[in-house]
Every structure is written in C-alpha cells, then in structure tokens.
C-alpha cells in the first residue's frame, strides 16, 4: 500500500506567534467555547463576585443552574455597611430600601460595592453588549445619584422588542380575527380537510386569509409565508381559540343584556345527522325595554352516565371504540345498513322460535334498560325520575355484590353456543399492551376486580356525585312548583 499512498508526517510543525492573525481581526462578539466544568448544583456560590458567567456552564447545565438560582434567595445583604462613593459633588451610598422596591431583581456585591440584576445575569443574551448596557450584569452599577436607572433598565429588559415587530404581529392577528369573524357570522366552517401548501382547497379560513392578503399588500407582507414559522396564527388550535373567544364574548354580552333580571332556561333534545342526542340551551328573558328575547347559548351532546363513566376504563373504552368504528362503517352506507338489519331480523326470528332471545341480552342492559328508558322519557316528571335514580343505584350495587357468578354463567353459555373459545380464568392474565411483562394476576382477578367491580364502583360513585342529597331535595322542591294539571303536585310541606 505504501507505493500508492504517501506517508503523512504525524509531527506538529512549529508555529511562530508572529504568523498568527492578529486578535483584532476576530469578531468581538464571538465567544470562546465554554470550558468543561464539574459543578455541584446544590452548592452554587451566592456572592456575585464568586459566580461564573452563565455562558461558561455547559449548554445542558445552564437551565438547571438558572432554576437553582431562581429558587435561592437573591444576594441582598441588608445589614451590610454600604460604602460611601464620591462622584462629582458629594458622596452617596446604596440605599437598602431599594431591595424592597425592586424585589428579587436587585442584588448587591459586597466585594465590588456595586448593584447587579439577577434576572439579567441569568437570561442576558450571549452577546453581552447587544441591546443595552452591561453595567447590571458584569461591571456593576454604583451611580447612586441616578437610582432611576434601576427602573429604566427593567423596562428596557422587558420591552426591548422593536415597534416594527409589534406592528407586524398586530396586523397578522387582526387579519386572522377578521377572517374568523366573517366565517362565524355566516355559520361557515373554518378548517379544511387539508391545509398543506399542495392542497387545492385549504379550507375557508386559509383561503379567505390568502385572499385578504392578495387585496392588501400591507397584510400580505406579514402573513402566511412572510410570517415567522412559529407565529403565523393559522394553526387549527389557533382557529379554535378564535372560535372559543368569540363564543365567550357572545355569552358575556348575553349576560350583560340579562343583567340581574329574571330569566327562563329552555332546554330541548334532538338528534344530529349522526343520530347522536344533543341538547340545545336557550335563555328567555325580558330586556330593559320590555321586549321578550330568546338567546341561544349552545349545544351539549348527551351521554348516559353508565357509558360516560365506563369509558374511563381502558378495556371498556377500547370496546366502545371498536363499537363506534363498527357503527361508523355500517352507518356510512345505506347498503350496509340494510344488510345489517336483514341479518338482525333473521337472528331475532331464530331466537324467538327457539326461545333464547332473552339469554342474549346483556346483564347490565337487562338491569338498567327499563329505568334508563323511563329516565329519558319526555313526559317523565321529576319525582318519578328521582325515584328511578335511587332504584338504578340499588340495582347497580346489587349487581356489583351478587352479579358476577350469573354473568359468568351467561358468558359461558354464549361462548359454548357460538363456538367461541373461553379464557381459563385461573391462568395468568396477559396484558396485550405489554405482553412480555408479567402481570402476576390471574384472568379471574383482572376481569372481576379490575374490570367488573371497578367499572361498577365508578358508575355508582358518579350517580352519587351527580345526585347528592342536596341536589335531590332541590329537585323535589322544584317538582312541588310544577304547573302541570293546575299545580296538582304542589305541596307546601316540601318547600318549608
């Protein structure tokens, strides 16, 4: 190999100091690489004279050093005999009252007899002289005749952003708000299915914002591509924030219009296009001019307590997720819906002929179905509803205490009839989320304790939280004032 490649000498040639470029040619703001320091975070020096420059710490240590100094008390020696300094005519010294006036910002170095700012030391730019004086960080300030410079430096540190950047941000924000306001007034959606650059239709918000920029050069210069990458004000989260902000403003305006007057609450239930039940809420009141007004507040999607609470459990939530996916797949096609109804009809006919229809009903549904249907009835009065709530709570508790064996018997019967393999309850439980990790519990313990009992406990607790004794008494009192059947349910003893 030596005939193809020449050997490279490993000796270092001597360098004459005169041959090096002069230091004056280097950039003054270019800092040397910070040395590797072994530090004890719990023993950082408090005296400013002993502190190392924040940039001398490793990059991955600086935030930890900053947090440590922020949790420590600033160096404020109240009992120190501050040195008199003569500048010009007369002598002045540091006033300890400034510690209270400027709080944790201000520190004092005894060795230099000068004042410093803690936050400027911790968060000053790497280029020290950029953006203002370095007196409060490195050199120290001792011109006690000009204490107003303390406040001036704080204001400069907090508000050093130039007016141009603020103006551009204001134009960009107003453009996004105007586009959102235009779409909301007309009930149009903001987001599109795709808002990337290559998408043909990026949604109403993006398209309207782009059109606004095309009509106004001042706006075009500060939005979309011309805006900073992390401050474009166009993300879906920002759009939702605009919508929520407008909704809050509308609600606040309605409350101011009602003032402290009497109002009625109108609640009506309907279903949306996906057949999910929802509740519309409307305020009805008389304004200051005597006119009757109705103001729509919002829509709340309804959900049964047993379903909402059960979804808090991972295994149950996963089951409901699969059911929801199945319903979306079936419901998206009329053909699939017809096929599903036909299969269901055939299965019901077979079950009716064989007399096995009841055995296929889920146990929890058989316990709660009638009560929940009555609770959801349109003509249900409050007294009967409260009675059914108590009945539902008792049935849930009974199911939790004595229902496991009967449930397992029905599961075994179902699996046997449909040739479904049933788990051996005495074997170790395997968590599908982490199958390699040993759980040290049996299938019986997981499904009985972690699933069955846990979910029923959550449901019982939720019923108790929603229908407390105080809430129940209040609803019963409200029922006594019902005008149905000429106040047939009026009972003054319930109101006392």
TrEMBL record:
Xref: InterPro entries: AtLOH3-like, DUF4371, Znf_TTF
Pfam families documented for this protein: DUF4371
Record-annotated TTF-type domain positions: 90-183
Region (Disordered): 1-42
Coiled coil region boundaries: none
Protein name: TTF-type domain-containing protein
Organism (species): Brassica oleracea var. oleracea
